[in-house]
Design brief:
This protein has 154 residues and is mainly α. The chain has helices at 2-19, 21-34, 38-43, 45-82, 86-99, 104-116, 120-133, 138-153.
């Protein structure tokens, strides 16, 4: 969350240096007090703007690529699950949950993995956790919990 804020801040400051010189001068006054003298900032304003803009783009790109990496891992975990390769699917789910412990979709997939492999107590704990995290999925989780109780009795 902080990296997104920092990235957007750098992008906005970069645009200000390019297109709003009056705001740039105000920023120069602030920077003069703390970082540089006014002449350096005015003479190198475009360079500073470009550097800040590029830093913002880099920070945002890193954050976005992390999001897609986790989304791709979820896709792979789902694919492994439907190919009945539960061990790899579980491993991928646990990797994602180490970073995003409240991801409902990954938790649900992990619960299904535990159910499919006969680890009903673990599946029950996962489905109860989802029920608490996402009340909108309460009915669906209740169905899974009923199936667990039926399978345990057999």
């Amino acid at each position: 969350m902080i990296t997104i804020f920092v990235g957007i801040t750098f992008v906005v400051i970069g645009f200000l240096y390019f297109y709003m010189p009056n705001i740039m001068i105000k920023l120069c006054e602030i920077a003069k007090k703390y970082l540089f003298n006014e002449k350096t900032i005015i003479l190198n304003g475009k360079k500073i703007g470009l550097i800040l803009f590029l830093l913002g783009c880099i920070v945002l790109t890193i954050k976005i690529s992390r999001y897609y990496t986790h989304r791709d891992k979820y896709y792979l975990a789902t694919k492994e699950f439907y190919n009945r390769n539960f061990k790899n699917s579980e491993k991928l789910c646990l990797e994602i949950l180490s970073v995003h412990p409240k991801n409902i979709f990954v938790l649900e997939l992990l619960g299904k993995i535990y159910f499919a492999t006969g680890r009903y107590d673990l599946a029950k704990n996962i489905f109860l956790k989802i029920k608490n995290l996402a009340p909108s999925k309460s009915d669906q989780m209740e169905k899974y919990l009923q199936r667990i109780s039926v399978n345990k009795k057999e």
